[in-house]
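Q: Okay, next protein. This is Amino acid/amide ABC transporter substrate-binding protein (HAAT family) from Sulfitobacter mediterraneus. I've checked the sequence twice, so it should be correct. Can you predict the 3D structure?
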Amino acid sequence: MKNITKLGAVSALSLIVGATAAFADNIKIAFIDPLSGPFASTGTNGLHQYQFAADHMVNEKGGVLDGQNFEIVPFDNKISPKESLIQLQVAIDQGIRYIAQGNSSGVANALTEAIAKHNKRNPDSRVLFLNYAAVDPALTNDKCNFWHFRFDANADIKMDALTDVMAADDSMKKVYIIGQDYSFGKAVAAAAVANLSSKRPDVEIVGNELHPIGKVKDFTPYARKIVASGADAIITGNWGADMLGLGKSVIENGYEGPIFTYYAAGSGMTAAFGESAKDRIRLISQGGINPIATEEARATYDAFEAKYPEGNIDQSRIFNVIGMLAQAIEGAGTADDVVAVAKQLEGMEYDSMWGGKIFMRPQDHQAIQDMHVGVHTNENIDFDYDNSGYGVFTESTVTMASMDSPTTCKMKRP
């Protein structure tokens, strides 16, 4: 009996050691975004999309290289640049070589600078920054670096496409611009002014203001100013709780025109807006959901909703991040040499299941892709958000938006 017990113990120990070794071989991706506070729902839904994409696109298909899986490791940054830098160091100390972040360009600016400094000082533990949603144009212009890749279109690219649609509306005479008071909000405002001035010089900008990010509990004073201005259209880059608060307030205070947005869908917002925002909120985004682009995308969306009934794929670019990273690692033949992986990402053309190609522009590491302008509606919706019956239906598409747009990036390569 003792020999059997010993044999069982040895077998159990072997299983534990084997499982530990397999776990250690995972390619870890640190997810540094808000998982608490006013933007927790946005961060949590993004985390679920990363975890699902890693499993669905990589792990369930045998992993990469010799069977290595992707593992998403969450870090709560509380939307704070300072906290993000602390979490970055924790991730690096854990041996993680891939950093994913997207919520807040203020955070992204802090991370990209810190990562560049770390990589210069520590060539044996370099990391790559996979930016999936922070769209301050400076990140791929004056602040660009070799270690940063942006998978979303920047604020200038999005505004160029959005104002193409706006400019075609002859009834639009007055526009109000409002946003969050940090680098991204300022970039959106600057791009809106520049584009409207060149495309529709007859349009009057009747308001251009910023408000504190994540701190406004009642947007009524802002909404009343917008209504009093006589604006025919609103432009905002607000996201998360700030987008919901602003949107609901302007509608409740009698504004009846279109609201042109960057991030006004999913994470509870679509359900909260409901019928009140029908044919009112318009959204610039990549990746078409309604109509769905491919059968692969349809199957992916169905599988995600089965696993996360309360969530939605509202950031399809996350799946592009995972797919392109997997392709780059396979091409490099390693996940440990991030320089080799980065060189595979540079210039990559990737066929996205959400429609069209993604081109990672080598001179600035800015992803170039199709841009879609959609409307909040409950008509012709195959895939809704928040189980609300409402979603975003694509009304127009700009193919490979801003492919030849200029960049001031002067990238130094290792």
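A: Here is a summary of the prediction. The radius of gyration is 22 Å. Residues 2-24 form the longest helix (23 residues).
Q: Noted. On to the next one.
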